[in-house]
Design goal:
The structure holds two protein chains of two kinds.
Chain A (H helix, E strand, L loop, with lengths): L20 H6 L4 H7 L4 E2 L5 E2 L1 H12 L11 H6 L10 E6 L9 H7 L1 H14 L4 E6 L4 H16 L15 E6 L9 H8 L14 H4 L6 E5 H13 L1 H4 L3 E2 L2 E2 L1 E8 L5 E6 L5 H6 L13 E5 L8 E2 L3 E7 L5 E7 L7 H6 L8 E6 L4 H15 L5 H18 L7 H10 L9 H15 L1 H16 L15
Parallel strand pairs in A: 3-4, 3-6, 4-5, 9-15
Antiparallel strand pairs in A: 1-2, 7-8, 9-10, 11-12, 11-15, 13-14
Chain B lengths: L6 H11 L9 H12 L4 H11 L3 H10 L11 E6 L2 H5 L2 H12 L9 E2 L5 E6 L11 E3 L2 E3 L4 H11 L1
Parallel strand pairs in B: 1-3
Antiparallel strand pairs in B: 1-4, 2-3, 4-5
The chains are: A alpha/beta, B alpha+beta.
Chain lengths: ~475, ~160
Amino acid sequence: MPQEYRLILKHADQPGYTPDLACYVRHGGYDALKKALATPGRELPDGKKQSPQEVLRDDVLKSGLRGRGGAGFSAGLKWSFVDRRGGKPIYLICNADESEPGTFKDRQILYKDPHQLIEGMVISCWANDVKLAYIYIRGEMAKGAKLLNQALAEARAKGFLGKNILGTGYDLEIHIHRGAGSYICGEETGLIESLEGKRPYPRIKPPYFPAVLGLYLAPTIVNNVETLCHVKHVVLMGGVEYAKLGTPNNTGTRIVSLSGDVQQPGYFEVEVGKVTLGEIIFDRNFGGGLRPGRSLKAVIPGGSSSKVLKAGEKFKLRRKGADGQMSAVEVDLLDLPYDFDSLQQAGTMSGSGAVIVLDDTRSMVETLDNVAEFYAHESCGQCTPCREGALWMSKALHRMTTGDGRREDAEYLRQIAQNIQGRTICAFGEAAAWPVLSFVKKFNDEFVARGAADEAARASTPATAAPVVRVAHP
Amino acid sequence: MAFSVPAKLEAELDELVTHYPQKRSASLMFLHALQEHFGHLPREAVEWTAVKLGLQPINVHELVTFYPMFRQEPLGRTQIKVCRTLSCAMAGSGELRGHFCGKLGLDPHHHGPQTTPDGKFTVEFVECLASCGTAPVVLVNDDLLEKCTVADCDRVLAQGR
């Protein structure tokens, strides 16, 4: 039977585990930092010398750790892009602006085990010669910000942070920066603008790659909360050992946030790729299945911006056989291993690890209406296709859910979405377009039927009847 | 009433400025602190922040108008933010908001925050509060109510009277 594998959340939910430093240290806290700071330099077979910091960065690369925020990009590679020769200070920002609908994993770390994040950050900062770092936390997590400030003060008092960390001569300061309710601040360049005290309009890449032109136009690393915590475990286990967790190219563990129509919604830490989407939804160690009498209709597999998967869908996955040859294997939606690559091959993404389950009682039109309103509200307004298109789609869907649908609305929505994706500065355009494109494609009949029913209802209403007053936008 | 920032708060804000290589970065944290103190961000708070950080008032004002958490008008003492986004909506957050509006005599179809005439409550829909596993959730001031029921809503109303 598939099980959780708790690495990041090993202690967080244990009875009596508290978020203070003493408790963290009792559970082996800051041992990884001590180990990291004592890393010796080494000479490679080709005679090249590696500094201790380079050794550690190399280890993170070898661990195969991929970003847990949404894009799943290699953390080691991201670090390798940092411009270390330009002479500007290097900044590190922890992205704690958790706000992708469906996601609630970073909250568990921030509220229950803040020192694990701080330790991961201090190690990552040391490995990248960072002297000043920030934690950008959602404005709504006011209590989390207070907890983190307390934890930072404790770490400073014990010499894990601040001047001359643990007597090594290394100085690092970490500050909390609060957001103020805007989803786009989770986009890394938008986050940087927000941290500079501006509206969070994402920057265009090139040239504004954070690794080169980030915060104050200096090289900057932006990593997710969970990713930074994993760095601690890479140090403790060693990169090669860490890479044995999970599956090749999808290493380690990740926290899956499960919500929607399941009996046991919640967060589950699993080895990446060792558990299938079906197990996450149906196994009694995880979601525990749907409510009695219900059947599965659809799954949003990686936060609300990922493309929806329809129950019964089959996917062709490329798999390496025993003979080392690649071949295509047909896999049912429920048998998709929950990892970065399998979901990508299924035409969607594991994103932030947020699975939202929809059962047969759900209307896809109303579900999409809800999702589209989110993106209409959160578009920053910088790029015309997104600012106008996201709102336009939301209005069309609102019309459909309030009795004014049309048969051709599915096609209409598809056209608007296609005019957004690929035409914006940041990936929000895709985030707004993908749900719409996938919903209207995979559930086209339902959208057309809804529109047709509304048309029929209007046709049978006498033209002299008073116009129905509808609420534009509750 | 004349606008004035207490010395203690000003000292805290001066310390915040030292967290950043560039003063402008402190503006969001300034606005949070001032809103916490004054309950909202009057024009004077925006101008005061601009002077403190060496900015034009528009540089600060554009933040107040962009970020949903900042308010230019006074809000109720108890601020109720009901999560509108998918998982909470599926778990009935729309009914919870409707219940609050019904009990407080507010318009359930109004878009944006609404404050009761007695200034006791503000009710609004907000986007995902990142607690979808315990949907529906409601943020009451800074406290998150998870798996919120109609009975929980009534308790919030009773406490805020």
